[in-house]
Each structure stands twice: as C-alpha cells, then as structure tokens.
Amino acid sequence: MSNIPKLGEVKDITRIERIGAHSHIRGLGIDQSLEPREVSEGMVGQINARKAAAVILQMIKEGKIAGRAILIGGEPGTGKTAIAMGMAQSLGKDVPFTAIAASEIFSLEMSKTEALTQAFRRSIGVRIKEENELIEGEVVDIQIDRPASGAGIRVGKLTLKTTSMDALYDLGSKMIDSLVKEKVTAGDIIRIDKGSGKITKLGRSISRLRDHEVSGAKVNFIECPEGEIQKRKEVEHTVSLHEIDVINSRAQGFFALFAGDIGEIKPEVREQINQKVADWREEGKADIIPGVLFIDEVHMLDMECFSFLNRALEDDMAPILIMATNRGITTIRGTNYRAPHGIPVDLLDRLLIIHTQPYQEKDVLKILKIRAAEEDVDISDDALALLTRIGLETSLRYSIHLITSASLVCSKRKGTEVSVDDVRKVYDLFVDVKRSVKYLKDYQDEFLYDTQPTTTNDQKMSDV
Ligand SMILES: Nc1ncnc2c1ncn2[C@@H]1O[C@H](COP(=O)(O)OP(=O)(O)OP(=O)(O)O)[C@@H](O)[C@H]1O
Ligand SMILES: [Mg+2]
Fold it and tell me: What residue ranges are annotated as transmembrane (predicted)?
C-alpha cells in the first residue's frame, strides 16, 4: 500500500502535464477593443471563440458577473482547453482560477459533491482588508529587569522617540525575547507590528554615525522618523474561501483523525465561515472576488454532479463556471438519456455556449511553428509543411507530439535541424488513431478477446 501516492501528489503530476501542452499560451491575444489578433500571446486563429472568450473575460474583470456558466464546445484539438488557459493567464493575479478535469471528482477520498464544493470554494477569493497598527521610532533606552532568582517573569521598559515625541512602553516577556533576538540596542530604529508583535530593525539612527561601537558590520544609517510613534497602515491580502475552510477545520486538531475525517469539510464549518465573511463584508473589512472554475471534459460528470452545479450557480457567492467538452449528442453519464454535449437540458439552458471550429492549414502551420519554438526545436520548412499535412489528416495533437519525438531522432543522428526524414521516421514509429484502428481491424482475429471495434454512441460535434 505504501507505494500508492497520495491524492494530492497524483493531482500535481497531472497538472504539470496539462500545463506542458499549453505552455505556449500566454493570454487570449486580444487588443484594447477586445479584437483578437491573428497571432498573439501564443494564440492562433479561432477568432470567433476567442472574441467571445474576451468578452466574458472583460465582464469577469469588471466584476459584473458571478454565477454564470459558459460552455466551450467543439471537436477534439480545436483549442478549447487552450482558450480556457488563455483566459486564466489574462485574469488579474488576485482573481482565483481553478482548473479541474471532470473525472477528478470521482475519487475515493471524498464524495463527488464535496470535491465539487471544494473546487467552487477554491474559485472564490476573499480580499481581506486589515488595518495594522505599527509602532515606529528610534530606541532611546531599553531596560530589562531580571528577577534575582533567574527564573520568573521578566519585565522591562522601552523608550522610543521620533523627531516630535517620545513614549515609554512596558515590555512583556515575549517582547523582551524578540528584542533580545533581534539584538536591538539604543540608537536602532525599529518597527513593531502591534498585531503580530513582529519586530523589524529598519536601521541605525544617523545621530549615531560617529559612534565607534558599530565598526565593521554593514549598517544602514537612516533618519529618525517624524511624527507619531503609533501609525496605522492598511494591508490587503486575498485568500480563497477554501483556504479559510481548511484553516478553520484544521483548528479542530487531531481529533478529526478519530472522527474518521477523510478530508471532507463539515457543512457547519462552511456555514460559520460564510457567516463570518458576510459580517466582514458588511463591516467593510472584506470584498468577494468571484473567480473562475474551469471544468474540462465536462461530459464525464453524472446527473448528481450536474444537479449540484445547477444549485451551486445560484449561490450568491458563486464563481464563473467555464466548461469544455468535445462531445456532441450523447448519453448523460450514468443514465440512458441522450442530450447535447451529454449535459442535461436544464443546465444547458443556463449556459452561454462558445463553439470552436476545426483549423485550416495556415492555422495548423502557425500553431506547429509556435510549438516548435516553445520546445526549442529547430525545424526545416519542408519538415514543418509535412507536419502540417499530417496534422490536417490525423490530428493537431498528434502532429504536436511528433515535434518532440522527431527532434529526439534528429539529435540522435547529431543533426541540428529536424528534417523531413526525421518526421517520416517518427510517423512510421508512432501510429495515429486512424492507422491504429485500421491495424486493429486488419488483425482483429489475432487479438485476445476480439470483438468488432465498436463505434460509440457518441456523435461527432460536426453531426450536431
Ligand atoms: N488557437 C490555438 N492557438 C495556439 N495553440 C493552440 C490553439 N488551439 C489549440 N492549440 C494547441 O493545440 C493542442 C490541442 O488543443 P487543445 O488541447 O486546447 O484542444 P481541445 O479542444 O481542448 O481538445 P479536446 O477536446 O481533445 O480536449 C494544445 O497543445 C493547444 O495548446
Ligand atoms: Mg481539452
């Protein structure tokens, strides 16, 4: 059992792989007026879908929409995942973006709805505004009284000044420890965060410049601060609702272990947190930032999950939901009902649908060129033209894969530029789906458990 990786690790691995395929995408490639540029930020063509995505993105940025859902539908390899990744790149750094594949929901560690709830709450940011009280000044004097016995509570006094005032503070033992640890002495200019008690040495007072006590070490001499010693400073930070959930359920400590808690967060904890966040909003201490939840391969969800989505989108703290699928009219998972995209009609009814179109030759060529550059592969024009043809006849993904393998073949023969021959070689080595199916059909009698290669009951997008 010990070599079974934990869920978290597995997820991370798939995430790295997924980023790899789209690492050339740096945004949606749109200009100021939301018009997609033909080639920009790693994005090529697919103009209509990109434009639609850009409009959605703009609405998200302006904070105008929450609880809306968008579906990107189209044939395999037409850039649906790429467009979602492009949107993610263009969101501000404070806007949370969560990407999952629908199949990740089905795990033994937690129920489907819990996994979905977590994904939703990961996608909602809470911007918390805090006012920190700071004490800032030059140390005039520190007095620490040690009890004669050496034990017991230590007490002390700290005198600080600015150019306009000075003040005396009583020190508790925790503060004394920090002052000793930071080696604070008279003449230092320090900042104390009143909330956390953290002490920062800002430098040494210029008035001590002539002192010989600090020779050698690099010392930063600064002016004695002006004005009040106590200052207020507003700090902002953004965390996701899920992060708040996790922190608060951990506080229950290790008793959670005995309660058989397997990573699910109790509904009571979430309710309390929702209430807390609502209070903070009312007091002006926090803002909600609806982020984006991207569910790829959404046809892998079942009825229960879809009905959960219906409900969850109605919550007033819902994020924007973006889904993608390459299925046409197909059965809804776990039922005998057929529906467009394998999605129940009541959910479909709430969606804005974006379609991606199959690529033309010029687009495939450009995408392959960008991928070659991304993978640092030098490739001849003929070889690129051949790859483009392969891409059109088989699939864009297949030809993207061939770039990597052809470059390996190339470096094996100590070449510097991938040639037509290198591409031919890998084309023979690795078959695409069409040839693989043909092979299976030709030799089906020799395979174990042979049955006719079944056609699925899925229709292609183009048949819809
Ligand atoms: N318009 C585009 N510009 C640049 N790269 C693209 C574009 N469209 C697709 N790609 C790249 O081509 C590959 C396949 O595209 P992608 O994975 O986005 O297809 P998909 O529509 O999600 O397919 P599937 O339905 O199989 O999931 C990816 O590496 C992607 O980054
Ligand atoms: Mg995809």
Answer: none
